[in-house]
Amino acid sequence: MQLIACPWCGPREEIEFSYGGQAAVAYPADPASLSDEQWARFVFFRDNPKGPFAERWVHSAGCRRWFGAVRDTRTYEFLSVGPLSATTARTSVLPEATP
Amino acid sequence: MSRIEGYGRIDRSRHVTVTVDGAAYTGHPGDSLASVLLAHDARPANTGVKLGRPRGIGASWTEDPTGLVQVEEPFPEPMLLATTVEATDGLVARGVNGQGRLSEVPDLARYDRLHTHCDVLVIGAGPAGLVAARTAARRGDDVVLVDDRPTAGGTLTGTETIDGRPSLDVVDEIVAELTTSPNVTHLQRTTAFGHYDDGFVLALERRTSHTDDGGLARRSRQRVHRIRAARIVVAAGAIERPIVLEDNDRPGIMLAASARDFLHRYGVLAGREVVVFTSDDAAYAAAVDLHDAGASVQVLDARATAPTLWSRRCADRGIAVTANTHVHGTRGEDRITAALVGPERREVACDLLLTSGGWNPTAHLFSHVGGRLAYDPSLGAFRPAAPRPGVEVIGAADGTFGLADILRQAGGVGAPPANEEPRDPTAVLWRTDGDPTRQFVDIQRDATVADIARAVGAGMTSVEHVKRYTTIGTAHDQGKTSGVIASGITAELLGRPVEDLGTTTFRPPYTPVAFAALAGRERGDLFDPVRTTPIHDRHVAAGAEFEDVGQWKRARHYPHPGENMTDAVLRECAAVRTSVGIMDASTLGKIDVRGPDAAVLLDRLYTNMMSSLKVGRVRYGVMCGNDGMVFDDGTVLRLADDRFLVTTTTGNAAAVLDWMEEWLQTEWPELRVRLTSVTEQWSIFAVAGPRSRDVVGAVFADLDVSNEAFGFMTWHDTALDGVPVRLARISFSGELAFEVSVSAWYAPAVWARLLEAGRDHGITPYGTETMHVLRAEKGYPIIGQDTDGTVSPHDLGMAWAVSKKKPDFVGRRSFGRPQNQDPLRKQLVSLLPTDAATKLPEGSQIVRFADDGRLPAPPVPMLGHVTSSYHSAALDRPFALALVKGGRERIGEVVGVPVAGELVPALIGETVLVDPEGARRDG
After folding, report:
1. Three-class secondary structure of residue B518 per DSSP
2. What is the per-residue DSSP string for B725-792?
3. Residue B676 CB burial class (10 angstroms; 0-12, 13-18, ≥19)
4. Residue B312: count of CB within 10 angstroms of its CB
5. Which chain B residues have a beta carbon less than 8 Å from that of A44?
6. How big is chain A by its Cα radius of gyration, in Å?
């Protein structure tokens, strides 16, 4: 049972938390201007790196606040946590579609 | 009797009687079931699982691969080791023929859970653990010390000298100091069985196993300690490794240290004529001690030369020591009668054969958290290879075997001194020459060297594969004595070094743990929280049948005497359509959405426009995910410019709140909105049917409930005896209907008033099943029943609920994807079986007929499936809702639904089957 350091509550057991997937995938500023493929990439595609990964987490059974974390997907170790805005710059630029 | 005066830590002044396989045996408090049996030269009536050969007691603690018993009294439990069952008066057990039997009576004992946080957790109260715990305690750390045996001291027998005194005196002294230290929790009979991330250890405490009455009336039987420690010291000792030889499974063959343990702990001599076969020094201590207790002993050492000091000690006593000699097999029927010694297999008479091939460090709890083990050829064993942060392994668990070294490792400069004993190196010997089909590696699994050879012959080169093929290491003991030997023999057969091969992975639990202990108090009614509405007892009194909706208990229908569910639902439906019914809808999710930007948030999350909703009005809304698929639906009441009350489906209440919070916190933190769940604060009763206006008007006389004053999809606040009540014209049945909302505290009173006012109209309480039929007759989908996460609002025929004015909302962009425009998407339609008699089973597939009216040739193309199906009182026939490919284009088409091997024709139609023009809505 891993401990996750909630930025507001401190270390708590992992069952109190829920995973929110990759961080810094901002909702597009103007979805209507996107091609179908660009939109599909926003909806369905996420990175899956081996190693450090910027993620969103929420302390569901605690303060219910969302926060950002960088976690090593090989070891599950949380390398850093912080408010979403601090650890994961929000961006309106979508990842480039690979042809 | 093999009880020896002057030995053991049992209480000889008192007696206990145990019954094993129908025979009564007398023992003493402090005995194990195994020691009582050995004291009477008896064993449980055990046989091996596959071959049916007799089995005895092979060790003195959890490593015993053979001495399993089924305990019948005081509490039935299968597959316990006789060595770990404490002898209490009245205990009844019997031998196990390979497999245990689950108890057939309920477990009335309590099981508990306790959370502990500490600076240091020390696992094992042998010399290493005791000194480590004392050192930490003196430093001021919060210390938890756990040990699985009834008393502290580990393998110390009392013959050793520590600090110039008998070792057990020093143990008592340290235990006394720990007991009086306020910062120490010392738990015996407590097995650390699992070690997880971040210093988390689970330990099972047996709290009643040593008391005659089971102690069940006063305390929980077992307790799982959930310990979170900043630092963990594993001082779990080591387990002796046997040497595999032909017919090594006979009763009367035991680990050398175990025979010594039986003598010093219980005063039991496990045999009179003893052969000790060893490749390690430690077995000599057993030889000497058993001799001193009266046994006739000889030692056969597999090594080229016997250790000098031990040879002299043996010579002083007349114990014959023969070096460079192997035992190759045994003779005997129910018990060993001879060892077969040397290449010529000379018969040496004995009633006890002790083997020792060295020691395996008990590093399981280091390995559980990913600690890497490496083979140490000087030990013939795997030991911790690299440190893990926060975990230390000390003493024999780390491969340190001399007592003086162990104490130094545990306590540093302040450690008590002990005599330095010279140790000759262990000779690594997995097995001697013999018939591999009778050389047992895992005695409990009846798995032999021949089985390993078969695995290797079949091409397996990994110990993990060999383990699964042979089942070695999968029994109750999880290979405590067999695992390393299996690696060694596999390596030998493959012709590879065991270093390269490694060993199988240790996983929790270290020893078996009862499911009841893991469940703790979360059984029966406490397994999962049960949520009931404030008028639950009224439903019970009215004879309701309930269904589970999430954690809620919801009244499903209210059968009258003699009615089945179909009868009751038809009656309740007819009451709503012809007079008036009332339903407890309190479980609906309710979210108070408040703030200057509340309307902006709802506009972004609902497909409908919510900002244009006027205060006092109600709008039905649909929520989608980014993929444009329906996620939830419900009504939205605008309470004020900056305040809405949102309702959700019962099952999705938490998910919708989470969804709204996620967007608010992560995407639009600039919006000034607060979300509050008010699900349990408000009770809601739906009063539905042509007479509902009369009932509501009678109860809330101050309110004008006429259609002109109180129109459809509006709400009004009023009061009843000073209690605020909210009424809303919302209908989920198509009938004239009012939803009455009141603080949950007053729900029973308001429910009673409504029933009272409706009595003359025959007001009928109706349940969720009736509600489902009524809404299906109107084509209203249930999210999660008629949808499955792949259904868009358009698929449901709800394009009208999708705003064309809003530039964006969650899901909007996906509606434009070609996949969402596909005319062959499954769409919600009704299905009327043309025989007007068959109720189509929900989930049934829908297929097109072949031209001859039969099933087409396989593969049969699937058109869709039935999502809801009921008998309709209003239509006087069964009907269904279904998702059908291109369904709306097929309206009027007859399709086939296979039911019990027959193809039932069914007509596709519009979803609204009752009152399509909506004439009944306003009464």
Report:
1. helix
2. EEEE---SSSSSEEEEEEEGGGHHHHHHHHHHHHGGGT-EE--HHHHHHHHHHTTPPPTTTT--SS--
3. exposed
4. 11
5. 627
6. 15
Q: Is the pLDDT of residue A94 over 90?
A: no
Please state the φ and ψ torsions of residue B175, each to the nearest 5 degrees: -60, -40
Instruction: Look up residue B281 and give its DSSP letter.
Output: T
How far is A79 from A71, CA to CA, in rounded Å?
Answer: 5
CB contact under 8 A, B662 and A32: no
pLDDT of residue A89: 42
- pLDDT at residue A87 greater than cutoff 50: no
Which residue type, as a one-letter code, is found at position B92? V
End-to-end Cα distance, chain B:
94
Contact between residue B346 and residue B340 where contact means Cβ atoms under 8 Å apart: yes
Return the structure tokens found at B621: 């809304």
**In angstroms, what separates the C-alpha of A95 from chain B's closest C-alpha?**
17
Q: Is the pLDDT of residue A88 over 50?
A: no
Low-confidence ranges of chain B (pLDDT < 70): 212-217
d(CA B299, CA B315): 11
Q: How many CB atoms lie within 10 A of CB B283?
A: 27
DSSP secondary structure letters along B364-402: HHHHTTT--EEEETTTTEEEE-S-BTTEEE-GGGGT--S
By the 8 A CB rule, do B267 and B260 touch?
Answer: no
Residue A85's pLDDT is: 65
- ipTM associated with this complex: 0.90
**CB proximity B745 to A under 8 Å:** no
Q: What backbone phi and psi angles, to 5 degrees, belong to B465?
A: -70, -40
Which tokens go with B262? 């039986």
Gap between the Cα atoms of B755 and B747, Å rounded: 12
Strand partners, B231: B120
Burial of B662 (0-12, 13-18, 19+ CB in 10 A): middle
Tell me: pLDDT of A26 over 70. Answer: yes
Say whether residue A27 is in contact with chain B using an 8 A CB cutoff: yes
Contact criterion met (CB < 8 Å) for A32 and B667: no
Query: Is residue A99 pLDDT above 60, yes or no?
Result: no
The verdict on whether omega for the bond into residue A49 sits within 30 degrees of 0, i.e. cis, is: no
What the block records as the tokens of B214 is: 């089971």
Cβ within 8 Å of residue B216, ≥6 positions away: B75, B108, B109, B110, B208
pLDDT at position B503: 87
User: Greatest CA span in chain B, whole angstroms?
Assistant: 115
Q: What's the rounded Cα separation, in Å, for the pair B700 and B696?
A: 6
A32 alpha-carbon distance from chain centroid: 24
Checking phi first, is residue B585 left (phi over 0); if not, alpha (psi -120 to 50) or beta? alpha
**Does B808 sit within 8 Å of A32, measured CB to CB?**
yes
Token pair, residue B184, equals: 């120490």
Measured CA to CA, the distance from residue B438 to residue B248 in angstroms comes to: 8
Task: Nearest by CB to B808, from A31, A42, A84: name it.
Answer: A31
Sorting pLDDT into bands at 50, 70 and 90, what band is A96? very low
Q: Determine how β-strand B16-20 pairs with β-strand B92-95.
A: parallel
The residue whose two tokens read 């609002």 is: B793
What is the residue-wise DSSP string for B834-849?
A: TTS---PPTT-EEEPP
Question: Would the CB atoms of B197 and A20 count as touching at under 8 Å?
Answer: no
